Amino acid sequence: MIDNLVTARPQVGLVKADLVFEAVAEGGITRFLAVYWRNKPGRIMPVRSARVYYMDWAAELDALYVHWGAARSGGPADVPSAFARLGLRDIDAFALGTPYFSRDPDRPSPHDGIADTDALWELAASNDWTGPPAIESWQFKEDEPQRAQQQAAAAAPTVDLGFGGPFKSDYAVHWEYDPDTNGYLRSQGGEPHEDGESGNQVQARNVAVVVTSVSLAGDGTSHLLYETTGSGEAVVFLDGVAVPGTWSKPDAHSRIRFFDAAGNEIAFNRGQTWIEVLSTSDPLTY
Q: How many helices (H) and strands (E) does the chain have?
C-alpha cells in the first residue's frame, strides 16, 4: 500500500510496479495498491495502511499484502476481519520493523514508511511463501501504435479523472498519450507524476478505468466501501484509443476482467497497467 497524500509525494518505487490500483482511501485522497512480480525496486515508500477493498483486489493475485497499519472498526471496513475472510498473507510493518521496514527522517510521519523489498523477499522465502502465484491470466497482444488512425477507432490522446470531485484538485489525474513509446504519461494535481528516486515520469501501457459504487462504511469514521465484485461500466485506454465496455469480477478471488461493447475480452499491451477505480459520481473525460 502506497501513500498519495500531497505531503507524501514523490513516491519511490511506483514506476517499477507491474500493476497499480488507485482508489480513494478517504477524504478524496487516493492511495495505491502496487503489485510487484517481475521487478525488484529495492525500496518502496511511503508505505501506508490497509483498506478492505484493496484487499479484494490483492486476493485475486494470491499476493503477499504489505502495509503499515490498518483500518480497524469492527464493522464492514475492519481489516483484520477481511484478512480472516480472504486468507491473505499479512505483512504489517507494525508487527515487523527492521530490517524489513524503516522510516525516512526527512519526511513527516506517518508519510515516511519505507519497505525494503529485498528483505521482504527473504522473509517470504523463510515462510515458504514462494513459487508461482495462482493467477488467472489476462489476455495480451502486440502493440498497435497506429491503431488511432483506424476508421472505427476512438482516438484518446488524453484522459482526465476527477477523483473525489473536480479536475482541479490535488488528486485529479491526467494521462497523456506518448506516440514514441505507445504509452500514457501520468500527471496528478497539475504536475508530472515523477519517481522520487529516478525522476522518471510514471507511464502506463494500459489504463483501465473502473466505475463502481462507493459508500461510507457506517462505522462512525470516514472509512469507505467500494463495490469490488459484480460488474459495471469500464473504459480501457491503450494504443492511443479508448475502448468502452464493462468490467467483471464474480468474487473476491476472481480476476477482474475487461470486455468491449461486443462482449469480447480486451487484450492488453505488455507493460505497466493502471486500474483507476472511480465512483459513479467522479468525472471522466477523454
A: 4, 23
